[in-house]
Amino acid sequence: MDLTTAEWHERARIAPLPTKPFIDGAFMDPISEETFDCVFPADGRVIAKVASCDGRDVDAAVRSARAAFESGVWSRMSPLDRRKILLRFSELLLEHRAELALLETLNVGKPITNALNGDIPSAASCIAWYAEAIDKVYGEVAATPSDVTTMIVREPVGVVAAVVPWNYPLSMAAWKLGPALATGNSVILKPAEQSPFSALRIGELAIEAGLPRGVLNIVPGLGHIAGKALGLHMDVDCIGFTGSTEVGGYFMQYSGQSNMKRIGLELGGKSPQVVLADCEDLDQAAKSIAAGIFSNAGQVCNAGSRLVVEDKIKDKLLEKVIAHATALKPGDPLDPSTKLGSIVTQEQLTRVLGYIDAGRDAGASIVAGGNQALKESGGYFVEPTVFDAVDNSMKIAQEEIFGPVLSTITVKNFDDAMTVANDSTYGLTASVWTGSLKNAHRAAQAIRAGVVWVNCFDRGQFNAPFGGFKQSGFGRDKSLHAMDKYTDLKAVWFAH
Ligand code: NAP
Ligand code: MG
């Protein structure tokens, strides 16, 4: 896909932008007459007005999903047929890669090259991975006396609502859709208000792939209206949520206030990148640390936003990290050479700049970046920013910034590093850089997080689970473990 910047801009100008809910196999006129604005964050222009679904639209989606589930058209379809349809769905995502990538960039300002080579193929791989898994998971037969046989089977929970964020719109949706659809559920997807386009478009692609109507419904809308309606709905059996810890807490309340629906929560993080004095390759560590915080402009749940480094190597390492930070220039996300795009909204830009001020006010020192960039574009760009002399109790070390801002915390030794790494309400991911096998094992054990990377960062495959400890959530996305969230266990006793 070798388009020039001008060609991408031309495509952006004429791209059809879906704006209506996708219910029961087709775009519908919403019952709610409200809309919300979608803004291209690289220039601040309103590019579409999208239906803001309310409780009535959500109810229509739930009724369609329930009817499809009860009919058995998907839930009881033979696993091999489900597999075939999901594999075709995955292929269609790839065939529409350029179109979907453009929708992501227009919604969230991420570099088109990343959307094209990262987000969309990754979403397609996720669907394919779960499609392939469908006929490769088995139930159990318990050891019992000979007058009885006990089968332990997993059944789909029924109607699943997937409520997802804007940072990797399609990819985060796929992490829910893959396991939920593969296990036979019907799904209602609520994309973030900042990023509805790709979610709505794949409704049509799912139908084209052969997914029966009603099995996948998509309701664009605001969190406190459409998201809340899903959370409180008496006929939604399960919520797969990715987003902030605050909203994750609301979903637990919604569940308690309604029908005890099952919930999986993938929430925020404040991931430490720990570099011990025995690290063997500071160049490699510095490169990885910079990528760990500046990818996707730092708008990543597992962004490695805390650099926890031993004092003996701090200056040497920081110099290298700063070199990466200053070399990385924000640019037009529709330019294929751009590596750092914009922040998603004016609101997030203000939030990120507010944190930079808070760090400065608390006495930390800015050693790279620190400012808004490309103001003349009308868009929301921030320079890659590095703080030194951060104390782990400061706001910039405790709270999730969700922007390209790294806080450097200097520690005295291994134990100190582990204490700081764990001194967080979050526990999503962590990395440790060390040349010592012993320290690698000790750190991997000591750090309370759902994923620990040793001498690397952000490695992942669909066969390894992803998710958090502590207030980073519970339940896991990816891997066969994710299928547990969308199924219930049933024990069946056959007396002979
Ligand atoms: P968010 O504000 O929590 O929103 C996530 C989703 O919840 C959106 O669809 C949102 O709709 C909806 N929502 C908001 N308020 C709601 C409410 N009162 N009731 C029901 N639903 C509601 O998160 P975000 O700003 O989109 O994304 C950033 C956050 O997501 C960060 O904290 C990040 O760490 C986390 N995240 C975690 C992971 C992970 O895998 N652990 C991955 C990506 C992001 P609206 O868009 O309309 O508000
Ligand atoms: Mg939000």
Mind sketching the topology for me?
Layout: H1 5-14, E1 22-23, E2 26-27, E3 35-40, E4 45-51, H2 55-71, H3 79-95, H4 97-108, H5 112-133, E5 140-141, E6 148-156, E7 159-163, H6 169-182, E8 186-190, H7 197-209, E9 216-218, H8 223-232, E10 238-242, H9 245-257, E11 262-266, E12 272-275, H10 282-294, E13 306-310, H11 311-327, H12 346-361, E14 365-368, E15 372-373, E16 381-382, E17 385-388, H13 395-398, E18 405-411, H14 414-422, E19 426-427, E20 429-433, H15 437-446, E21 451-454, E22 469-470, E23 473-474, H16 482-485, E24 487-495
Parallel strand pairs: 7-8, 7-10, 8-9, 10-11, 12-13, 12-20, 13-18, 17-18, 20-21
Antiparallel strand pairs: 1-2, 3-4, 5-6, 6-24, 11-23, 14-17, 15-16, 19-22
The protein binds NADP nicotinamide-adenine-dinucleotide phosphate and magnesium ion (MG).
